[in-house]
Design brief:
With about 475 residues, the protein is α/β, with parallel strands linked by helices. About 60% of the residues lie in helices and about 5% in strands. The chain has 2 domains: about 190 residues, no CATH class; about 180 residues, 3-Layer(aba) Sandwich (Rossmann fold). It has 18 helices and 6 strands. Strands 3-2-1-4-5-6 form a 6-stranded parallel sheet.
Length: about 475
């Protein structure tokens, strides 16, 4: 296939990628955007396979079959609640692929007799460095989300100094790859040091910051792919990787703002963080928590004019989104205004709650962002919190020494009555008690999310 046709096809695919990203910026056009992006990728794959530089299709076909089989099994078996760790793992696979492809290209040039170009060696170094950090950092993120390792931030004396030394070592080895590209030992040493850096940089980040980490690792995987595009001199890979890298870093900045975190804090695993303290659970809850039954809550809902649902990770775990939608429809049929307040980092990944509620056919217009819904809480009769914790913890506003100090939260405590559906008083990702659970206007409903909402539906129907 002539190079001009290949480049023109890549240009068309790139335009489709950009249009796809634009479409996915709004739920109404998200499906069309996803289709455009998939079409662009199909064009890029077909054109690449038809390129004359392809030597053998057998290995490619075998990889396609194996990868498709693994992907299909994962897509079918992985629950929506496990999607965050799935995304973290896929980010890692992207970084790992970049490492292997760049290394293979380096070997290929060496076998052909050298002739290393500076652009290629520099790009190869970046692929190894960024890809190694991405792959092993993503494995740590996966382990934290899957509860294979502690979700708390692992901090030890001299941690930042060690991180800096490892980073300097990685940069030195990257320079070594550029100066001596024929030495694969230096390349793999760079990958090994990048792996250590990825682990150290991620292990120091707590579970509460996982949404930010996931979007950041997504950006890293795009940058690694873009660097590999320069290694292969493939314009399509450069453009696609750049789009992923740029969109990932923009999303990371949005997440940082939503959590009152600096990007440096996330990038360097807590750099600039101050020592934090929190009250003991017994001091916060002792003698103050009021539990309620479905019938008691149903009486409140029967006369409520405005009800705000606040979903969290507990809703995802219990798969309660469909029951929540049914309860919302029931309350609307009784004349109540029903709103869903979605915090940007509720759940374990950006947009986690939006995806679950969309799955349950909750109208997008009913999903309000934090800045819009917060002024509405003082005029809200009942706020129902389903499995959310840190994103509704008023300590963020009142305690400057708290781990979540300054984090923008949903002001549910300002509603006339707050109903919190949780299995227990266990803390959220930040690991601190929530005074909301012991507030004067709060009723705790201890139960599984789905069962609790279904019992509420039955109680509301009986109260009518």
């Amino acid at each position: 296939m002539p190079p001009v046709v290949i480049n023109l096809s890549y240009l068309v695919a790139s335009v489709l990628f950009i249009m796809g990203l634009k479409g996915m910026s709004h739920p109404r056009t998200a499906v069309r955007g996803n289709t455009l992006g998939a079409t662009g990728m199909l064009i890029a794959i077909v054109v690449t396979l038809l390129d004359r530089s392809i030597i053998s299709y057998e290995v490619i076909f075998a990889g396609l079959v194996l990868g498709s089989a693994i992907g299909a099994v994962m897509a079918i078996r992985v629950q929506m609640t496990a999607m965050p760790q799935m995304v973290a793992l896929l980010n890692g696979f992207g970084g790992g692929a970049s490492v292997l492809v760049a290394g293979a290209a380096l070997v290929e040039v060496g076998v052909a007799g050298g002739g290393y170009q500076t652009q290629m060696t520099v790009a190869t170094s970046l692929s190894a460095l960024i890809g190694g950090v991405t792959f092993f950092g993503s494995l740590v993120a996966f382990g934290k989300l899957q509860d294979l390792i502690t979700g708390n931030a692992v901090v030890f004396p001299g941690q930042h100094l060690l991180n800096a030394l490892v980073a300097l070592g990685a940069v030195g080895l990257a320079v070594g790859v550029v100066l001596r590209p024929e030495s694969m030992e230096i390349y793999w040493a760079l990958v090994a040091v990048a792996a250590v850096l990825g682990v150290l940089a991620t292990i120091g980040i707590g579970g509460a910051d996982m949404p930010v980490v996931i979007s950041l690792l997504n950006s890293y995987s795009g940058l690694a792919a873009s660097a590999t595009g320069f290694v292969l001199q493939n314009n399509m890979l450069i453009i696609a990787g750049s789009l992923v890298g740029a969109s990932g870093i923009i999303l990371t900045q949005i997440m940082c703002k939503a959590m009152n975190r600096s990007l440096a804090n996330v990038l360097f695993g807590g750099l600039g963080a101050v020592a934090t303290t929190s009250a003991k659970a017994d001091d916060v809850y002792a003698g103050k928590v009021k539990s309620a039954s479905p019938d008691e809550i149903a009486i409140l809902l029967d006369s409520a004019r405005r009800v705000v649902f606040v979903p969290g990770y507990g809703m995802a775990v219990s798969q309660a989104q469909h029951a929540v939608r049914s309860l919302a429809q029931l309350l609307e049929s009784k004349g109540a205004e029903v709103i869903f307040a979605v915090h940007p980092v509720a759940g374990r990944m950006p947009g986690h709650m939006n995806v679950l509620l969309a799955e349950a056919d909750v109208p997008y217009e009913a999903l309000l962002e934090m800045d819009v819904v917060n002024p509405m809480f003082p005029q809200t009769d009942v706020a129902i919190v389903i499995g959310a914790n840190d994103v509704v913890n008023p300590v963020a506003r009142t305690d400057p020494k708290s781990p979540i100090a300054g984090m923008p939260i949903l002001d549910v405590d300002k509603a006339r009555t707050v109903v919190v559906i949780k299995r227990s008083l266990s803390p959220g990702f930040a690991g601190i008690p929530n005074p909301l659970f012991a507030a004067e206007n709060t009723l705790m409903y201890f139960s599984d999310g789905q069962k609790a909402v279904n019992d509420l539906i039955a109680a509301v129907k009986e109260a009518s």
